[in-house]
Amino acid sequence: MSEHRRPGRPQIADPEKIGLEAAALFAERGYAGVSMDDVAARSGVSRRTLFRHFANKADLVWHDFFVAYGRLEDLLAHEATGPGMAGLRSALRQVLTERPSGSDLDRVRFRIIGESDEVFAAGVRGLGVMTAGLAHQLSRDGMLDENGVEARAAGQAVTGCILAASVWWAQHSDDELVDVIDAALARLEQGIA
């Protein structure tokens, strides 16, 4: 028996499931070989429902990255999380070990981000929000003025470090994603001298 929906009633959809289905399609056909209609069909949602959650195909690639950042942001807001880079690294390690990261689908997503200027550009706005949040974390110990150039530059450096390490991992490493990112952040913390 088919389920009858009333016209205009929104279809229930799980953005995480849709993101996984999209990544699986990208792995099978390549990013350019997948349309939003393909993703909708594979996910079992209407095109309209898909666009209610994702503005474009690039958003499907970035979705999991920003979901993980949302979890990190929540952890950084807890007073139990220490300030500065040490607190950030600890919280990030926790986020990346609590969720299934480092999968083949993560590799697909990060490869696409690294290889497609269009997809990278689509995530820039979210990276700006991430930079501001990381600048706040890095200034919590009072060593940096959160509104100053040093905190903003430090937040940008950490954002870039996390993203660059993730893309490098997808293209070159069999190690755990969490270990690759943490090693890159540890080097950044030591300085580049």
From TrEMBL:
Residues 12-72 form the HTH tetR-type domain. Keywords: DNA-binding, Transcription, Transcription regulation. InterPro entries: DNA-bd_HTH_TetR-type_CS (IPR023772), Homeodomain-like_sf (IPR009057), HTH-type_TetR-like_transc_reg (IPR050109), HTH_TetR (IPR001647), MftR_C (IPR041347). It comes from the Bacteria. GO terms for molecular function: DNA-binding transcription factor activity; transcription cis-regulatory region binding. The keyword S-adenosyl-L-methionine does not apply. It holds the Pfam family TetR_C_14. Residues 35-54 bind DNA. This is Transcriptional regulator, TetR family. It comes from Demequina mangrovi.
